[in-house]
Amino acid sequence: MHGESLLYLSAELIIMLSVILVAAKVGGEIAERYLKIPALIGELCAGILIGPHALGGIRFFDLAGPMFHEVGKLATDASGHLPEVPEPAIPFALYFVGQLGAVLLLFEAGLETDRKRFLRFIRPATAVALGGIIFPFGLGALVTWWFGYANFNSIQEAIPALFVGAILTATSVGITARVLTDISRLDSIEGVIILAAAVVDDVLGIVLVAIVVGIEAEGSVSGGSVALLIVKAIGFWLGLTLIGSILANRISRMTMWFKSDGSTLVLAITLGFIAASVAEIYFGLAMIIGAFSMGLALSATLLKEYTIFAIRNGGSILVPVFFCVIGMQVDLTAIWESDNLGRLALFAFAVTVIAIVTKVAGAGLPVMAVGYGKQRSWRIGLGMLPRGEVALIVAEIGRASGIIGRDIFTVAIVMTVVTTIIAPIFLVKAFGPRQPRRQGHAPTNAH
Amino acid sequence: MHGESLLYLSAELIIMLSVILVAAKVGGEIAERYLKIPALIGELCAGILIGPHALGGIRFFDLAGPMFHEVGKLATDASGHLPEVPEPAIPFALYFVGQLGAVLLLFEAGLETDRKRFLRFIRPATAVALGGIIFPFGLGALVTWWFGYANFNSIQEAIPALFVGAILTATSVGITARVLTDISRLDSIEGVIILAAAVVDDVLGIVLVAIVVGIEAEGSVSGGSVALLIVKAIGFWLGLTLIGSILANRISRMTMWFKSDGSTLVLAITLGFIAASVAEIYFGLAMIIGAFSMGLALSATLLKEYTIFAIRNGGSILVPVFFCVIGMQVDLTAIWESDNLGRLALFAFAVTVIAIVTKVAGAGLPVMAVGYGKQRSWRIGLGMLPRGEVALIVAEIGRASGIIGRDIFTVAIVMTVVTTIIAPIFLVKAFGPRQPRRQGHAPTNAH
Fold first, then answer.
1. What is the DSSP letter of A340?
2. Which among B29, B79, B279 has CB closest to A68?
3. How many of the other CB atoms lie within 10 Å of CB of B218?
4. Hey, are the CB atoms on B213 and A85 less than 8 Å from each other?
5. pTM here?
6. Which ipTM did the prediction report?
7. CA-CA to A46 of 20 to 30 Å: which in A288, A332, B112, B374?
8. Which residue of B5, B34, B48, B260 to mutate against A (max A Cβ within 10 Å)?
9. Are residues A283 and A363 in the same domain?
């Protein structure tokens, strides 16, 4: 009886969520306290450790929290009610909780950003994003061709190279935002430029992925559809940010109509949620872009003042789930399953090095060019380095649509893991010792 | 491309969650401010209104949030990663968020309960629970036989009657806990007895359901397996409550080892989560029993003092989702689809009246018998009245396992909706005007 009930499934899921929460918090605590590296690396590694490809895959975990327990039919069969819940519902629900964490993280990042600063730095941010896209894309495509995974005889044969390039353009604003929050530098000049550039990077990067997938699907791509995509993407976040800024105080006052406990909090979060899903569903952008833009729009309102504390509390629960779930998606053993191990390992090494060098240089050099100095260029270049969930998702789109094989997919994962793990370490070093929260913006290396 | 991505699915789900959150809060606000009834009725009705059988089923909502949008294959196909996510994953994930709300609600209720009072009133609570089980079970079975939906010629033919009886024994401690929290009476003598009785009721009611399902499955049921079930069920919550009470301060101190933001909160919630899922998975009890018992065990600790505010915040977001999702499961039109409308409508009326009378009298009379007086008997009887999610789940177990048909299932839903809607109205009246939070326990009707 119980094996078939929705409640039993929910209980399984709650056990898994509990394991994830505790593992993430223990991992984060060890990382921060004993290894002196940002908590998110501990959370990510905890995810790799308890994930299906490590501890989560062995029998012991089947007992404590049966991650892959076969789930029978259950609940009502009426199409409207709650129909059969097959096995994938559980990993999806865990993934979804992680996504809520990502959305909340970027919403909070937007809320805590100084909007005037953000808009003031939009031009250097665009330069950073463009530099951080062109170099990784070009060299990523070239190295894929060099290793023989693609050639440029025809557009079809070049697709894998273009896709690897597209994966390398990704920037995970979530990872950097978390690191900068941890060291209280989210509102520094570098922080604002990095966040703004990551938004622009995501918009342009996703357009790039859409174009490559479009070419693969149709054999070609029309100029009109590309133009439409670009207009939609850029229009959305410019529009949301600008219109949002104008209406923010009105929206903020509207939510004050509600008197019952927690209503203001619910409505603030809902605004972030809606912007996130509208960005994804109707504009083909990432959810985190929508959440960040809405946070930015509401950053100078009373609504923010009323809710930011509770939103930080919520983030402290959900964000570690996000990083832990990312870690659980990593399968490092897959690289040994390849038929052509030596070449693949070399390719993985080359792609990772190119991913690091082209992003740090490509994003950093435009900053130097406009006169921000060497230290800021270095910090901003590093801030754009982590690929995080964005590259994982892009790689998965490529694998699922048959553009790249399992070998290149694995390489993309290795590159993502390495950049995501090393970037925070160098970022923390580049920014110097931890600053007291909200104590001035001027960068300093003094101890 | 986007129609196949996990992120797109997550975005759809976030839109739905946003619609649920806003609808629940608007419904709750209207109920409380304009109709002067508890917020949860507004939340429940908002759920019925936006549910798949009303607005959520028409085309308009398919655009805003495509509740039944066909979902293609996506993500990795490796068994470990995130495999295909078919359509049911979305309703399940929404249901799961609601379940987190229910667990949090009962964990909070446990935390805010005065443990010494709870244990002091465990005997009247047991009397209340027994009275509230025997009468509804007996008369529920009788009326089902009377209307010809079952007969007592053989044990197999009597099963539907026994099952209707079992459904009627349910008590939704969640609904009553919320009402009493809303009117600041959760820690009154009546409140403590109701909560304790609902826990006992749930333990005994679930044993009853397990026995009926066991008879259906095997044609008979052995005395040994029934005894084992009862020992497990009662042993679990007595054990958790008592051992938990002894170890609570040690657990509380252990969680203080963590220094990073939100760790204490995460660990407190995780303790409630683990107790909830262990109750469901390993002891065949309801999750909410586990959560309540753990909350009770931790109610006098520093951990509670540190986290209760944030847990209330979390509850104010998730609990309305729970009630709204319950509302979304209600399909009032189903009663008109019956072949034998007149008889079914009469049966529904009879079952509902019996559900009300037997529960209020059955739970109230033992209270009167031990000398608590008429007013307290009336309040406690009413507090045990709402069936809420417990009856819905029990009815669903019956339908899914073929014990009851769609007709009796619909009747059970009508009974659940009516008792769940009327109980809070009468409860609020019975308890008199709203008391300022934490201002004495003595009941009063003075304005």
1. S
2. B79
3. 10
4. no
5. 0.75
6. 0.73
7. A288
8. B260
9. yes
